Amino acid sequence: MTKKETLILFFVLAAAFLSLSSSLWGEFTNWDDRLHIVDNSEICSLNFPHIKTIFTSAASLGYIPLTVLSFAVEYHFFGLNPFVFHLDSLLLHLIVTALIFWLGLRLGLNTWAAGLAAFLFGIHPMHVESVAWISERKDVLYAVFYLLALHSHFTYIEKGKKRFFLLTAVYGILSMLAKPMALSLPLILWLCDWMKGRRFTPNVFWEKIPHLVYIVPIAWVTYHIQAVTVQSPLGEVVLTWIWCSVFYIWKFLYPVALAPLYMRPEPVSFLNPVYAAAIVSLIAFLAIFIRFRNNRWVVFAGLFYVLSIFFLFRFDVSRFNIVADRYMYLPSVGFCFLFGLSVHQGLVRLNKRKQGRIILAMVCLVVLFGALSVKTFLQCGIWKDSLTVWSAMIEYADFSKAYNGRGAVFAGQGRDEEAFQDFNKAIALEPGFAKAYSNRALIHLRRNQLGLALADLSVALKLEPDSAYTYGSRAFVYAHMNRLDLAMRDFNRALEIDPSAAKLYYYRSLAHLNLKQFDAAIADAEKAKDLGYLNLDDYIKNLKTYVFSK
Fold first, then answer.
1. pTM
2. Which of 53-62, 304-313, 343-352, 428-437 is the least confident region?
3. Residue 320 domain-assigned?
4. Are residues 453 and 374 in the same domain?
5. CB 46, CB 40: distance < 8 Å
Protein backbone atom coordinates (compact mmCIF):
# COMPACT_ATOMS: atom_id res chain seq x y z
CA MET A 1 0.00 0.00 0.00
CA THR A 2 1.12 3.52 -0.73
CA LYS A 3 1.39 6.12 2.02
CA LYS A 4 -1.71 7.85 0.65
CA GLU A 5 -3.76 4.64 0.72
CA THR A 6 -2.57 3.87 4.25
CA LEU A 7 -3.55 7.31 5.56
CA ILE A 8 -6.99 7.24 3.92
CA LEU A 9 -7.70 3.73 5.19
CA PHE A 10 -6.56 4.66 8.70
CA PHE A 11 -8.89 7.66 8.72
CA VAL A 12 -11.82 5.55 7.44
CA LEU A 13 -11.27 2.83 10.05
CA ALA A 14 -10.87 5.37 12.85
CA ALA A 15 -14.13 7.06 11.86
CA ALA A 16 -15.94 3.71 11.67
CA PHE A 17 -14.59 2.68 15.07
CA LEU A 18 -15.66 5.92 16.73
CA SER A 19 -19.10 5.82 15.09
CA LEU A 20 -19.74 2.32 16.43
CA SER A 21 -17.79 2.61 19.68
CA SER A 22 -20.94 3.03 21.79
CA SER A 23 -21.79 -0.60 20.97
CA LEU A 24 -18.86 -1.73 23.15
CA TRP A 25 -20.73 -0.98 26.35
CA GLY A 26 -23.78 -3.02 25.47
CA GLU A 27 -24.92 -6.10 27.37
CA PHE A 28 -26.23 -9.43 26.19
CA THR A 29 -29.89 -9.14 25.21
CA ASN A 30 -32.69 -11.64 25.71
CA TRP A 31 -33.28 -11.61 21.96
CA ASP A 32 -31.23 -14.60 20.69
CA ASP A 33 -28.13 -13.70 22.74
CA ARG A 34 -29.30 -16.04 25.49
CA LEU A 35 -30.07 -18.74 22.94
CA HIS A 36 -26.75 -18.48 21.11
CA ILE A 37 -24.45 -17.54 23.99
CA VAL A 38 -25.62 -17.08 27.57
CA ASP A 39 -27.70 -20.27 27.83
CA ASN A 40 -25.97 -22.19 25.06
CA SER A 41 -24.32 -25.28 26.55
CA GLU A 42 -22.57 -25.94 23.22
CA ILE A 43 -20.11 -23.07 23.74
CA CYS A 44 -19.13 -23.93 27.31
CA SER A 45 -16.15 -26.03 26.21
CA LEU A 46 -13.75 -26.32 23.30
CA ASN A 47 -13.34 -30.08 23.59
CA PHE A 48 -14.02 -32.37 20.64
CA PRO A 49 -17.56 -33.48 21.66
CA HIS A 50 -18.74 -29.86 21.94
CA ILE A 51 -17.11 -28.81 18.68
CA LYS A 52 -18.63 -31.85 16.99
CA THR A 53 -22.06 -30.83 18.32
CA ILE A 54 -21.56 -27.29 17.03
CA PHE A 55 -20.86 -28.56 13.51
CA THR A 56 -23.59 -31.20 13.48
CA SER A 57 -26.54 -29.18 14.78
CA ALA A 58 -28.47 -26.08 13.82
CA ALA A 59 -28.52 -22.92 15.91
CA SER A 60 -31.98 -21.35 16.18
CA LEU A 61 -33.21 -21.28 12.56
CA GLY A 62 -29.94 -21.67 10.69
CA TYR A 63 -26.73 -23.61 10.30
CA ILE A 64 -23.96 -21.25 11.49
CA PRO A 65 -21.31 -23.47 13.14
CA LEU A 66 -18.35 -21.16 12.52
CA THR A 67 -20.18 -18.28 14.21
CA VAL A 68 -21.08 -20.47 17.19
CA LEU A 69 -17.47 -21.66 17.35
CA SER A 70 -16.31 -18.03 17.56
CA PHE A 71 -18.59 -17.61 20.59
CA ALA A 72 -17.10 -20.76 22.13
CA VAL A 73 -13.55 -19.41 21.71
CA GLU A 74 -14.50 -16.11 23.38
CA TYR A 75 -16.27 -17.94 26.21
CA HIS A 76 -13.26 -20.21 26.72
CA PHE A 77 -10.81 -17.33 27.19
CA PHE A 78 -12.99 -14.52 28.58
CA GLY A 79 -16.17 -16.09 29.92
CA LEU A 80 -19.43 -14.21 29.47
CA ASN A 81 -17.84 -10.78 29.12
CA PRO A 82 -20.07 -8.84 26.69
CA PHE A 83 -17.36 -6.23 26.06
CA VAL A 84 -15.13 -8.85 24.45
CA PHE A 85 -17.97 -10.15 22.25
CA HIS A 86 -18.84 -6.62 21.15
CA LEU A 87 -15.21 -5.70 20.54
CA ASP A 88 -14.65 -8.74 18.33
CA SER A 89 -17.73 -7.93 16.26
CA LEU A 90 -16.56 -4.35 15.82
CA LEU A 91 -13.05 -5.45 14.83
CA LEU A 92 -14.51 -7.84 12.27
CA HIS A 93 -16.55 -4.95 10.85
CA LEU A 94 -13.37 -2.90 10.52
CA ILE A 95 -11.74 -5.80 8.64
CA VAL A 96 -14.74 -5.92 6.30
CA THR A 97 -14.43 -2.16 5.75
CA ALA A 98 -10.73 -2.49 4.91
CA LEU A 99 -11.40 -5.37 2.52
CA ILE A 100 -14.04 -3.23 0.76
CA PHE A 101 -11.50 -0.42 0.37
CA TRP A 102 -9.01 -2.82 -1.24
CA LEU A 103 -11.73 -4.41 -3.35
CA GLY A 104 -12.63 -0.98 -4.74
CA LEU A 105 -9.01 -0.45 -5.73
CA ARG A 106 -8.84 -3.84 -7.44
CA LEU A 107 -12.04 -3.09 -9.35
CA GLY A 108 -10.54 0.11 -10.73
CA LEU A 109 -11.55 2.89 -8.33
CA ASN A 110 -8.90 5.39 -7.47
CA THR A 111 -7.79 5.84 -3.87
CA TRP A 112 -10.19 8.67 -2.99
CA ALA A 113 -13.23 6.96 -4.53
CA ALA A 114 -12.43 3.68 -2.78
CA GLY A 115 -11.94 5.58 0.47
CA LEU A 116 -15.33 7.31 0.15
CA ALA A 117 -16.98 3.97 -0.56
CA ALA A 118 -15.37 2.30 2.44
CA PHE A 119 -16.19 5.34 4.59
CA LEU A 120 -19.88 5.13 3.71
CA PHE A 121 -19.94 1.40 4.39
CA GLY A 122 -18.09 1.70 7.67
CA ILE A 123 -20.36 4.33 9.24
CA HIS A 124 -23.73 3.58 7.62
CA PRO A 125 -26.49 3.36 10.28
CA MET A 126 -28.09 0.41 8.52
CA HIS A 127 -25.08 -1.70 9.49
CA VAL A 128 -25.45 -1.10 13.22
CA GLU A 129 -27.63 -4.17 13.74
CA SER A 130 -24.98 -6.48 12.26
CA VAL A 131 -22.27 -5.07 14.54
CA ALA A 132 -24.00 -4.09 17.79
CA TRP A 133 -26.23 -7.16 18.14
CA ILE A 134 -23.89 -9.91 19.32
CA SER A 135 -26.01 -12.70 17.84
CA GLU A 136 -25.55 -11.13 14.42
CA ARG A 137 -21.84 -11.88 14.52
CA LYS A 138 -22.64 -14.12 11.56
CA ASP A 139 -23.03 -11.06 9.31
CA VAL A 140 -19.59 -9.58 9.88
CA LEU A 141 -17.95 -13.01 10.01
CA TYR A 142 -19.41 -14.31 6.76
CA ALA A 143 -18.63 -10.98 5.09
CA VAL A 144 -14.94 -11.25 6.01
CA PHE A 145 -14.52 -14.64 4.32
CA TYR A 146 -16.83 -13.68 1.44
CA LEU A 147 -14.64 -10.67 0.59
CA LEU A 148 -11.46 -12.70 1.08
CA ALA A 149 -12.89 -15.15 -1.47
CA LEU A 150 -13.39 -12.29 -3.94
CA HIS A 151 -9.83 -11.06 -3.38
CA SER A 152 -8.45 -14.56 -3.81
CA HIS A 153 -10.45 -14.92 -7.03
CA PHE A 154 -8.93 -11.72 -8.40
CA THR A 155 -5.46 -13.01 -7.56
CA TYR A 156 -6.33 -16.27 -9.35
CA ILE A 157 -7.40 -14.25 -12.42
CA GLU A 158 -4.21 -12.20 -12.35
CA LYS A 159 -1.72 -15.02 -11.68
CA GLY A 160 -3.58 -18.07 -12.95
CA LYS A 161 -2.31 -20.24 -10.11
CA LYS A 162 -4.56 -23.07 -8.97
CA ARG A 163 -3.78 -22.57 -5.29
CA PHE A 164 -5.67 -19.28 -5.35
CA PHE A 165 -8.62 -21.05 -6.95
CA LEU A 166 -8.57 -23.55 -4.08
CA LEU A 167 -8.13 -20.74 -1.56
CA THR A 168 -11.23 -19.05 -2.99
CA ALA A 169 -13.19 -22.24 -2.33
CA VAL A 170 -11.81 -22.49 1.22
CA TYR A 171 -12.87 -18.92 1.97
CA GLY A 172 -16.25 -19.67 0.42
CA ILE A 173 -16.74 -22.70 2.67
CA LEU A 174 -15.84 -20.67 5.76
CA SER A 175 -18.23 -17.93 4.69
CA MET A 176 -21.08 -20.42 4.26
CA LEU A 177 -20.31 -21.96 7.66
CA ALA A 178 -20.59 -18.49 9.22
CA LYS A 179 -23.89 -17.67 7.49
CA PRO A 180 -25.63 -19.41 4.58
CA MET A 181 -26.34 -16.00 2.99
CA ALA A 182 -22.95 -16.57 1.32
CA LEU A 183 -24.70 -18.82 -1.20
CA SER A 184 -24.62 -15.89 -3.64
CA LEU A 185 -20.82 -16.12 -3.95
CA PRO A 186 -20.66 -17.87 -7.39
CA LEU A 187 -23.01 -15.24 -8.85
CA ILE A 188 -20.88 -12.40 -7.48
CA LEU A 189 -17.74 -14.11 -8.79
CA TRP A 190 -19.31 -14.03 -12.26
CA LEU A 191 -20.17 -10.37 -11.78
CA CYS A 192 -16.59 -9.59 -10.80
CA ASP A 193 -15.36 -11.51 -13.87
CA TRP A 194 -17.52 -9.27 -16.03
CA MET A 195 -16.30 -6.18 -14.18
CA LYS A 196 -12.68 -7.20 -14.84
CA GLY A 197 -13.41 -7.77 -18.53
CA ARG A 198 -13.10 -11.57 -18.57
CA ARG A 199 -14.78 -13.31 -21.48
CA PHE A 200 -17.50 -15.79 -20.53
CA THR A 201 -15.83 -18.90 -21.88
CA PRO A 202 -16.82 -22.47 -20.89
CA ASN A 203 -13.83 -22.52 -18.55
CA VAL A 204 -15.09 -19.42 -16.72
CA PHE A 205 -18.43 -21.17 -16.29
CA TRP A 206 -17.05 -24.51 -15.11
CA GLU A 207 -14.68 -22.98 -12.57
CA LYS A 208 -17.73 -21.76 -10.60
CA ILE A 209 -19.34 -25.20 -10.41
CA PRO A 210 -17.09 -26.54 -7.60
CA HIS A 211 -18.50 -23.87 -5.30
CA LEU A 212 -21.88 -25.56 -5.57
CA VAL A 213 -20.43 -28.65 -3.88
CA TYR A 214 -20.38 -26.89 -0.51
CA ILE A 215 -23.03 -24.24 -1.12
CA VAL A 216 -25.93 -26.50 -2.12
CA PRO A 217 -25.86 -28.84 0.94
CA ILE A 218 -25.58 -26.00 3.48
CA ALA A 219 -28.20 -23.91 1.69
CA TRP A 220 -30.51 -26.91 1.53
CA VAL A 221 -30.19 -27.54 5.28
CA THR A 222 -31.02 -23.91 6.02
CA TYR A 223 -33.93 -23.85 3.58
CA HIS A 224 -35.27 -27.08 5.05
CA ILE A 225 -35.22 -25.50 8.53
CA GLN A 226 -36.76 -22.19 7.47
CA ALA A 227 -39.12 -23.37 4.71
CA VAL A 228 -42.59 -21.83 4.78
CA THR A 229 -45.80 -22.57 2.97
CA VAL A 230 -47.11 -19.72 0.86
CA GLN A 231 -50.72 -19.19 1.82
CA SER A 232 -51.35 -15.65 0.58
CA PRO A 233 -53.20 -14.83 -2.66
CA LEU A 234 -50.96 -14.24 -5.66
CA GLY A 235 -51.61 -10.49 -5.57
CA GLU A 236 -50.39 -10.23 -1.97
CA VAL A 237 -47.34 -12.36 -2.78
CA VAL A 238 -46.33 -10.05 -5.65
CA LEU A 239 -46.91 -6.87 -3.65
CA THR A 240 -44.96 -8.20 -0.68
CA TRP A 241 -42.06 -9.17 -2.94
CA ILE A 242 -42.02 -5.71 -4.56
CA TRP A 243 -42.16 -3.96 -1.19
CA CYS A 244 -39.28 -6.06 0.14
CA SER A 245 -37.15 -5.42 -2.93
CA VAL A 246 -37.31 -1.63 -2.59
CA PHE A 247 -37.41 -1.45 1.21
CA TYR A 248 -33.66 -1.96 1.52
CA ILE A 249 -32.87 0.70 -1.08
CA TRP A 250 -35.19 3.16 0.68
CA LYS A 251 -33.50 2.57 4.02
CA PHE A 252 -30.01 2.72 2.52
CA LEU A 253 -30.71 6.06 0.86
CA TYR A 254 -32.63 7.50 3.81
CA PRO A 255 -31.61 5.65 6.99
CA VAL A 256 -34.16 6.98 9.47
CA ALA A 257 -36.73 5.14 11.59
CA LEU A 258 -34.43 2.12 11.73
CA ALA A 259 -35.82 -0.58 14.01
CA PRO A 260 -34.70 -4.02 15.19
CA LEU A 261 -37.97 -5.50 13.94
CA TYR A 262 -40.30 -4.51 11.11
CA MET A 263 -43.83 -5.60 10.29
CA ARG A 264 -45.29 -5.94 6.82
CA PRO A 265 -47.57 -2.95 6.12
CA GLU A 266 -51.24 -3.85 6.26
CA PRO A 267 -53.45 -4.16 4.35
CA VAL A 268 -51.51 -5.71 1.48
CA SER A 269 -53.32 -3.98 -1.35
CA PHE A 270 -52.72 -1.80 -4.37
CA LEU A 271 -54.80 0.84 -2.57
CA ASN A 272 -52.32 0.99 0.31
CA PRO A 273 -50.05 4.02 -0.37
CA VAL A 274 -47.01 2.08 0.88
CA TYR A 275 -47.36 -0.55 -1.83
CA ALA A 276 -48.24 2.03 -4.47
CA ALA A 277 -45.02 3.87 -3.57
CA ALA A 278 -43.10 0.58 -3.74
CA ILE A 279 -44.35 -0.08 -7.27
CA VAL A 280 -43.45 3.45 -8.39
CA SER A 281 -40.03 3.15 -6.75
CA LEU A 282 -39.30 -0.17 -8.42
CA ILE A 283 -40.24 1.26 -11.82
CA ALA A 284 -38.02 4.29 -11.13
CA PHE A 285 -35.05 2.13 -10.10
CA LEU A 286 -35.46 -0.06 -13.19
CA ALA A 287 -35.68 3.05 -15.38
CA ILE A 288 -32.43 4.38 -13.91
CA PHE A 289 -30.79 1.01 -14.43
CA ILE A 290 -31.89 0.90 -18.08
CA ARG A 291 -30.99 4.55 -18.69
CA PHE A 292 -27.43 3.99 -17.44
CA ARG A 293 -27.03 0.43 -18.67
CA ASN A 294 -23.82 1.39 -20.44
CA ASN A 295 -22.29 2.61 -17.18
CA ARG A 296 -20.58 -0.46 -15.78
CA TRP A 297 -20.58 0.87 -12.21
CA VAL A 298 -24.34 1.40 -12.23
CA VAL A 299 -24.81 -2.12 -13.62
CA PHE A 300 -22.35 -3.52 -11.07
CA ALA A 301 -24.08 -1.81 -8.13
CA GLY A 302 -27.54 -2.91 -9.22
CA LEU A 303 -26.56 -6.50 -9.95
CA PHE A 304 -24.44 -6.83 -6.80
CA TYR A 305 -27.48 -5.84 -4.76
CA VAL A 306 -29.94 -8.10 -6.56
CA LEU A 307 -27.69 -11.16 -6.83
CA SER A 308 -26.68 -11.07 -3.17
CA ILE A 309 -30.08 -10.42 -1.60
CA PHE A 310 -32.86 -11.58 -3.95
CA PHE A 311 -33.41 -14.84 -2.06
CA LEU A 312 -34.33 -12.78 1.02
CA PHE A 313 -37.14 -10.92 -0.72
CA ARG A 314 -39.99 -12.45 1.25
CA PHE A 315 -43.36 -13.47 -0.10
CA ASP A 316 -44.83 -15.44 2.81
CA VAL A 317 -47.27 -14.30 5.47
CA SER A 318 -44.75 -13.90 8.28
CA ARG A 319 -45.66 -10.95 10.47
CA PHE A 320 -42.16 -10.39 11.81
CA ASN A 321 -38.66 -10.27 10.35
CA ILE A 322 -40.04 -10.01 6.85
CA VAL A 323 -37.28 -7.46 6.31
CA ALA A 324 -34.30 -6.57 8.51
CA ASP A 325 -31.47 -4.02 8.40
CA ARG A 326 -28.88 -6.79 8.74
CA TYR A 327 -29.85 -8.34 5.40
CA MET A 328 -28.43 -5.25 3.68
CA TYR A 329 -24.98 -5.55 5.27
CA LEU A 330 -23.00 -6.99 2.34
CA PRO A 331 -25.48 -6.31 -0.51
CA SER A 332 -24.91 -2.58 0.03
CA VAL A 333 -21.29 -2.81 -1.15
CA GLY A 334 -22.09 -2.06 -4.81
CA PHE A 335 -24.05 1.06 -3.88
CA CYS A 336 -21.13 2.21 -1.70
CA PHE A 337 -18.76 1.86 -4.67
CA LEU A 338 -21.16 3.80 -6.89
CA PHE A 339 -21.42 6.53 -4.26
CA GLY A 340 -17.65 6.80 -3.89
CA LEU A 341 -17.11 7.01 -7.65
CA SER A 342 -19.93 9.51 -8.25
CA VAL A 343 -18.90 11.84 -5.42
CA HIS A 344 -15.25 11.79 -6.46
CA GLN A 345 -16.06 12.46 -10.11
CA GLY A 346 -18.41 15.27 -9.09
CA LEU A 347 -15.75 16.91 -6.93
CA VAL A 348 -13.19 16.65 -9.75
CA ARG A 349 -15.58 18.33 -12.20
CA LEU A 350 -16.37 21.11 -9.72
CA ASN A 351 -12.71 21.68 -9.04
CA LYS A 352 -11.99 22.09 -12.75
CA ARG A 353 -15.00 24.15 -13.80
CA LYS A 354 -16.51 25.82 -10.75
CA GLN A 355 -13.79 26.12 -8.16
CA GLY A 356 -15.91 28.45 -6.05
CA ARG A 357 -18.41 25.67 -5.36
CA ILE A 358 -15.91 23.01 -4.36
CA ILE A 359 -15.83 24.29 -0.77
CA LEU A 360 -19.62 24.14 -0.53
CA ALA A 361 -19.60 20.58 -1.90
CA MET A 362 -16.94 19.54 0.59
CA VAL A 363 -18.92 21.08 3.44
CA CYS A 364 -22.02 19.18 2.33
CA LEU A 365 -20.02 15.95 2.23
CA VAL A 366 -18.65 16.55 5.72
CA VAL A 367 -22.15 17.30 7.02
CA LEU A 368 -23.48 14.12 5.39
CA PHE A 369 -20.79 11.90 6.89
CA GLY A 370 -21.09 13.68 10.22
CA ALA A 371 -24.85 13.12 10.31
CA LEU A 372 -24.45 9.45 9.41
CA SER A 373 -21.78 8.99 12.07
CA VAL A 374 -23.94 10.59 14.76
CA LYS A 375 -26.96 8.54 13.66
CA THR A 376 -24.86 5.37 13.83
CA PHE A 377 -23.50 6.25 17.26
CA LEU A 378 -27.01 6.86 18.59
CA GLN A 379 -28.43 3.80 16.83
CA CYS A 380 -25.97 1.63 18.76
CA GLY A 381 -27.73 2.80 21.92
CA ILE A 382 -30.77 0.73 20.93
CA TRP A 383 -28.66 -2.38 21.53
CA LYS A 384 -27.45 -1.31 24.98
CA ASP A 385 -29.54 -3.96 26.73
CA SER A 386 -32.72 -5.98 26.41
CA LEU A 387 -34.92 -3.18 27.69
CA THR A 388 -33.68 -0.67 25.11
CA VAL A 389 -34.05 -3.19 22.28
CA TRP A 390 -37.67 -4.08 23.00
CA SER A 391 -38.62 -0.50 23.85
CA ALA A 392 -37.23 0.62 20.49
CA MET A 393 -39.42 -1.94 18.75
CA ILE A 394 -42.49 -0.78 20.66
CA GLU A 395 -41.69 2.83 19.78
CA TYR A 396 -41.61 1.87 16.10
CA ALA A 397 -44.90 -0.06 16.19
CA ASP A 398 -47.13 -2.19 18.44
CA PHE A 399 -45.44 -5.59 18.32
CA SER A 400 -46.81 -8.46 20.40
CA LYS A 401 -43.34 -10.00 20.31
CA ALA A 402 -41.78 -6.76 21.56
CA TYR A 403 -44.19 -6.45 24.49
CA ASN A 404 -43.51 -10.07 25.40
CA GLY A 405 -39.76 -9.52 25.19
CA ARG A 406 -39.88 -6.39 27.33
CA GLY A 407 -42.18 -8.14 29.77
CA ALA A 408 -39.56 -10.87 30.16
CA VAL A 409 -36.97 -8.19 30.95
CA PHE A 410 -39.23 -6.59 33.57
CA ALA A 411 -39.92 -10.02 35.08
CA GLY A 412 -36.18 -10.70 35.32
CA GLN A 413 -35.75 -7.38 37.14
CA GLY A 414 -38.53 -8.19 39.60
CA ARG A 415 -40.83 -5.52 38.12
CA ASP A 416 -43.78 -7.89 38.07
CA GLU A 417 -46.57 -5.36 37.58
CA GLU A 418 -44.91 -3.85 34.50
CA ALA A 419 -44.18 -7.35 33.20
CA PHE A 420 -47.79 -8.38 33.76
CA GLN A 421 -49.04 -5.35 31.81
CA ASP A 422 -46.71 -6.09 28.89
CA PHE A 423 -47.73 -9.75 28.74
CA ASN A 424 -51.39 -8.69 28.76
CA LYS A 425 -50.69 -6.26 25.92
CA ALA A 426 -48.91 -8.97 23.91
CA ILE A 427 -51.87 -11.33 24.33
CA ALA A 428 -54.34 -8.58 23.43
CA LEU A 429 -52.44 -7.88 20.21
CA GLU A 430 -52.01 -11.57 19.36
CA PRO A 431 -54.37 -13.93 21.22
CA GLY A 432 -52.55 -16.93 19.74
CA PHE A 433 -49.14 -15.97 21.17
CA ALA A 434 -48.25 -19.06 23.26
CA LYS A 435 -45.02 -17.68 24.78
CA ALA A 436 -46.87 -14.68 26.24
CA TYR A 437 -49.28 -17.00 28.07
CA SER A 438 -46.34 -19.02 29.42
CA ASN A 439 -44.60 -15.89 30.64
CA ARG A 440 -47.73 -14.47 32.23
CA ALA A 441 -48.18 -17.77 34.04
CA LEU A 442 -44.86 -17.26 35.83
CA ILE A 443 -46.11 -13.90 37.13
CA HIS A 444 -49.20 -15.70 38.43
CA LEU A 445 -46.85 -18.24 40.04
CA ARG A 446 -44.93 -15.49 41.84
CA ARG A 447 -48.21 -14.12 43.12
CA ASN A 448 -49.13 -17.63 44.28
CA GLN A 449 -52.11 -17.64 41.89
CA LEU A 450 -51.46 -21.24 40.94
CA GLY A 451 -54.85 -21.87 39.31
CA LEU A 452 -54.42 -18.88 36.98
CA ALA A 453 -50.88 -20.05 36.19
CA LEU A 454 -52.10 -23.52 35.20
CA ALA A 455 -54.89 -21.99 33.09
CA ASP A 456 -52.41 -19.86 31.12
CA LEU A 457 -50.05 -22.78 30.63
CA SER A 458 -52.89 -24.99 29.39
CA VAL A 459 -53.74 -22.38 26.76
CA ALA A 460 -50.08 -22.13 25.79
CA LEU A 461 -49.77 -25.90 25.34
CA LYS A 462 -52.88 -25.98 23.16
CA LEU A 463 -51.33 -23.30 20.95
CA GLU A 464 -47.83 -24.82 20.99
CA PRO A 465 -48.00 -28.46 22.10
CA ASP A 466 -44.28 -29.19 21.64
CA SER A 467 -42.83 -26.39 23.76
CA ALA A 468 -40.18 -27.54 26.23
CA TYR A 469 -40.32 -24.10 27.84
CA THR A 470 -44.05 -24.40 28.58
CA TYR A 471 -43.83 -27.97 29.89
CA GLY A 472 -40.96 -26.89 32.13
CA SER A 473 -42.98 -23.92 33.38
CA ARG A 474 -45.95 -26.13 34.18
CA ALA A 475 -43.64 -28.53 36.00
CA PHE A 476 -42.55 -25.61 38.25
CA VAL A 477 -46.19 -24.85 39.04
CA TYR A 478 -46.96 -28.48 39.87
CA ALA A 479 -43.86 -28.60 42.08
CA HIS A 480 -45.12 -25.54 44.00
CA MET A 481 -48.45 -27.34 44.43
CA ASN A 482 -46.48 -30.36 45.77
CA ARG A 483 -47.91 -32.48 42.95
CA LEU A 484 -44.52 -33.98 42.26
CA ASP A 485 -45.78 -36.83 40.10
CA LEU A 486 -47.27 -34.36 37.62
CA ALA A 487 -44.21 -32.14 37.89
CA MET A 488 -41.97 -35.10 37.07
CA ARG A 489 -44.16 -36.00 34.09
CA ASP A 490 -43.81 -32.49 32.64
CA PHE A 491 -40.07 -32.32 33.35
CA ASN A 492 -39.65 -35.60 31.48
CA ARG A 493 -41.70 -34.36 28.54
CA ALA A 494 -39.78 -31.07 28.40
CA LEU A 495 -36.44 -32.88 28.32
CA GLU A 496 -37.68 -35.24 25.63
CA ILE A 497 -38.34 -32.18 23.47
CA ASP A 498 -35.11 -30.37 24.42
CA PRO A 499 -32.44 -32.72 25.86
CA SER A 500 -29.96 -29.83 26.12
CA ALA A 501 -32.02 -27.76 28.59
CA ALA A 502 -29.53 -27.70 31.47
CA LYS A 503 -31.79 -25.71 33.79
CA LEU A 504 -34.53 -28.34 33.56
CA TYR A 505 -32.12 -31.11 34.57
CA TYR A 506 -31.26 -29.12 37.69
CA TYR A 507 -34.88 -28.57 38.67
CA ARG A 508 -35.76 -32.17 37.91
CA SER A 509 -32.89 -33.10 40.21
CA LEU A 510 -34.62 -31.15 42.99
CA ALA A 511 -37.87 -32.97 42.25
CA HIS A 512 -36.07 -36.32 42.42
CA LEU A 513 -34.57 -35.23 45.73
CA ASN A 514 -38.00 -34.45 47.17
CA LEU A 515 -39.17 -37.86 46.00
CA LYS A 516 -36.09 -39.39 47.71
CA GLN A 517 -34.85 -40.68 44.35
CA PHE A 518 -31.24 -39.85 45.21
CA ASP A 519 -29.38 -41.60 42.41
CA ALA A 520 -31.59 -39.91 39.82
CA ALA A 521 -31.11 -36.56 41.58
CA ILE A 522 -27.32 -36.91 41.38
CA ALA A 523 -27.44 -38.00 37.73
CA ASP A 524 -29.57 -34.99 36.75
CA ALA A 525 -27.36 -32.59 38.70
CA GLU A 526 -24.25 -33.93 36.98
CA LYS A 527 -25.98 -33.65 33.60
CA ALA A 528 -26.89 -30.03 34.33
CA LYS A 529 -23.28 -29.36 35.31
CA ASP A 530 -21.96 -30.99 32.12
CA LEU A 531 -24.27 -28.75 30.11
CA GLY A 532 -22.81 -25.68 31.81
CA TYR A 533 -25.63 -24.71 34.19
CA LEU A 534 -24.28 -22.68 37.13
CA ASN A 535 -21.62 -24.05 39.48
CA LEU A 536 -23.16 -27.19 40.91
CA ASP A 537 -20.04 -28.68 42.52
CA ASP A 538 -21.12 -27.90 46.08
CA TYR A 539 -24.68 -29.07 45.44
CA ILE A 540 -23.51 -32.38 43.99
CA LYS A 541 -20.92 -32.84 46.74
CA ASN A 542 -23.48 -32.23 49.50
CA LEU A 543 -26.00 -34.47 47.77
CA LYS A 544 -23.53 -37.33 47.53
CA THR A 545 -22.46 -36.83 51.13
CA TYR A 546 -26.07 -37.00 52.27
CA VAL A 547 -26.69 -40.17 50.24
CA PHE A 548 -23.56 -41.91 51.49
CA SER A 549 -24.40 -40.98 55.08
CA LYS A 550 -27.61 -42.97 54.68
1. 0.89
2. 53-62
3. yes
4. no
5. no
